[in-house]
Amino acid sequence: MAFLTINLRNNDRLTSWKIEGAMEKSKVLVVGGSGYIGRRVVKASLAEGHETYVLQRPEIGLDIDKLQMLLSFKKQGAHLVEASFSDHRSLVDAVKLADVVICAMSGVHFRSHNLLLQLKLVDAIKDAGNVKRFLPSEFGTDPARMKNAMEPGRVSFDEKMTVRKAIEDANIPFTYISANCFAGYFAGNLSQMGTLLPPKDKVLIYGDGNVKVVYMDEDDIATYTIKTIDDPRTLNKTVYLRSPENILTQRELIDMWEKLIQRKLNKSFLSKQELLSSMEGLDYASQVGVGHYYHIFYEGCLTNFEIGDEGVEGSELYPEVTYTRMNEYLKLYL
């Protein structure tokens, strides 16, 4: 039997605790493994030495890019498991192969939006009866703190809470990952809407630009996610990824970029009222996005609270992870 030894210092005395079985590597099933975060979770799981299964849905059809990605996982040592959300028995059989299920299905409205499909996965996990940890598709803002979010953007938070309720009602052990702002969507573009690239001359600042935001490299998100799955400290907890050097204001992010390009950008400022007024006439997906920007850059929803007993912080749990700082990340765009 393997043991994990945790050393705790209390009143200058070092106390060692042994947790039985904690070092045994769980078998992992990744659902949504060909997606933006899912592909990184598969890679991280393999890198950490977990036997890794990736759900292959027959609905993939003629999507050659997704198929090629799944086959590349197979070359790296992952197992592809065919199952469909329209076939409960196939989902149960897939779930029975793993100790931990990680779902990374898309929850953004400008791409596919499949969050409530997870309810079928919850039913399969419940019927399988073997899963010791389920990580549903979250990875962004903690939905439990967004009860007063504005329409229509609150739909994402409401759906995630619906999935959480189903998990907890079924007494399925869980870990929720709150990874805040993906760097690819929020850092490389200096948090500009409508583009993924940094502006060349002009930059728009939200409010005064001094609200603290958390930017996370997506590969780091996957690394921290896999670290949690066999950790008793994260069982039935929310893991917040708040890597200290990546807690930045928009102004600080812009300043990093200006130092890299060695020149100043022309700055304009968008008031709260101007942002909210801009929603009028936008399509549904764009309104959702603008609403999320409002909560992040004006209300400070990622950093305006202290982590309580219901949560833990990733970089504190896993100081051995060398996470990507945003000043290094931005160099990719030079």
Automatic annotation (TrEMBL):
BP term (GO), one: lignan biosynthetic process
InterPro entries in the cross-refs: NAD(P)-bd_dom_sf, NmrA-like, NmrA-type/Isoflavone_red_sf, PCBER-like
GO molecular function, one term: pinoresinol reductase activity
UniProt keyword terms in alphabetical order: NADP, Oxidoreductase
Protein name (record): NmrA-like domain-containing protein
Domain of life: Eukaryota
CDD domains recorded: PCBER_SDR_a (cd05259)
PANTHER family attached to this UniProt entry: PINORESINOL REDUCTASE 1-RELATED (PTHR43349:SF4), PINORESINOL REDUCTASE-RELATED (PTHR43349)
NADP keyword on record: yes
Domain spans labelled NmrA-like: 24-330
Family that this chain belongs to: Belongs to the NmrA-type oxidoreductase family. Isoflavone reductase subfamily.
UniProt organism field: Arachis hypogaea (Peanut)
